[in-house]
Inverse folding.
C-alpha cells in the first residue's frame, strides 16, 4: 500500500513464498520420518537381538502314542515381580475331547494356550502331550505335533481346518506326522 512493492515484484514473490513454505513443511516431515526411523530400529532390535529358541530336543521324534494333553501344576508370570497369570493350574484333555476355555478378558486364556503351544515357557509345572514332556522334546518337535490359529492371525482363503493344517491334504494321518500343521508362529 506504500507502493514499496510493485505488482511485478508481488507476482514474483508469491511463487517464492509458496516454494519456501512447501519445502519447509517437507523438511519437517523428513525430520519426523528420521525420528521414526529410530523407533523402527528399536523395534527391530527386539527381534534381531532376541536369543534363538533353545532347541535341544531329539532331532526326530516318533509321533506321540496318543493325544492326551496333561497340564500339571502350571504356574506362569511374564517376568520377575509381575503378577501371576496362572497359578497351580492342572487339568487333562482326553483324546478326541473338545474343550472351550471360558473366562473374563485378561484372565489368562491366551497365555495358557501359548504355553501349551510351546510359545511361552511355563515358570513352573509341566505339560505333556501323549506322554511327551513339552519342555524336553524341544520347540521344533512341539510345533510338529500341534496346529493353531491364534486370535490375531491372518487367515488364508480356505476353511479353518485348511488354515490349521497349512493346506496339508493328509493332516489326519498321524502316522506320517502330517500334523506338520503349525499356525503362523505356533
Ligand atoms: N506379553 C505380556 N507381558 C506382560 N503381561 C501380559 C502379556 N500378555 C498378557 N499379559 C497379561 O496377562 C494377563 C492375561 O492375559 P491374556 O492371557 O491375554 O488374557 P485373555 O486371553 O484371557 O484375555 C493380562 O493381565 C495381561 O495384561
Ligand atoms: Mg485372549
Amino acid at each position: 500500500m506504500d507502493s514499496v512493492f510493485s505488482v511485478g515484484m508481488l507476482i514474483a514473490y508469491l511463487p517464492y513464498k509458496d516454494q519456501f513454505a512447501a519445502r519447509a513443511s517437507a523438511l519437517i516431515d523428513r525430520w519426523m520420518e528420521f525420528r521414526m526411523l529410530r523407533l523402527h530400529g528399536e523395534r527391530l532390535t527386539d527381534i534381531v537381538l532376541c536369543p534363538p529358541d533353545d532347541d535341544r530336543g531329539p532331532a526326530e521324534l516318533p509321533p506321540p502314542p496318543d493325544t492326551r494333553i496333561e497340564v500339571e501344576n502350571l504356574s506362569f508370570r511374564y517376568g520377575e515381580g509381575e503378577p501371576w497369570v496362572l497359578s497351580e493350574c492342572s487339568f487333562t484333555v482326553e483324546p478326541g475331547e473338545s474343550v472351550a476355555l471360558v473366562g473374563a478378558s485378561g484372565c489368562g486364556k491366551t497365555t495358557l494356550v501359548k504355553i501349551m503351544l510351546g510359545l511361552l515357557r511355563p515358570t513352573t509345572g509341566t505339560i505333556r502331550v501323549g506322554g511327551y514332556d513339552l519342555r524336553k522334546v524341544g520347540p521344533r518337535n512341539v510345533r510338529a505335533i500341534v496346529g493353531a490359529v491364534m486370535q490375531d492371525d491372518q487367515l488364508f482363503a480356505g476353511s479353518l481346518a485348511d488354515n490349521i493344517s497349512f493346506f496339508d491334504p493328509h493332516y489326519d494321518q498321524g502316522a506320517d506326522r502330517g500334523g506338520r500343521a503349525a499356525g503362523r508362529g505356533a
In short: The first helix runs from residue 7 to 48. The pocket of magnesium ion (ligand 2) is lined by residues 109-110, 151 (CB under 6 Å). Residues 174-186 have pLDDT under 50 and may be disordered.
